[in-house]
Please model this.
Amino acid sequence: MLNWFRDVFGAVYTVLHGLYVTFRYWMRTYDPQRRTFTHHFEYPELPVPVAPRYRGFHRYDLTTCIACDQCAKACPVDCIYIGKEKVTQGKGFRVTGFTIDYTKCMFCALCVEPCPVDCIFMGATHDLSSYSRDGSIVDFSRLPTEIAWGRATLNPTAVATSKVIAEPVHGGPNS
Model:
């Protein structure tokens, strides 16, 4: 009987504690001194500070990729598509397309670990807003060279301009 009362008290206590936390955060929304997100960080003019281990949008170095498909095989949601063709002189493959569908990506970073040449890694970019789903599909082989090589951050303007480029900017290390 004592255990039953202890369980009932524990259940009532946890519910009341959860309601207290909810009510406390709810009342903070009506604080007149509270500022909006854009007042805190001056977004989008200044970038939002992110933690050093933040897993944002990928950065991809097209010059070192050997088109081994290890990142695409490790992806649990199959959002990485690699286009490649056999090199006629020499050995290896030529990268014709490296596309990541960010409508499916869950930013787990499981694609980073199996890469034998470390050409894909997680970046610090957190905003890739677009008006259509087509803007969330990024082909890294058609991006400007600085972004495709991982030296600059991924941005919506570069993704939009890369949609009109028909041929890859750079074919990878074998071209």
In short: The chain has five helices and five strands.
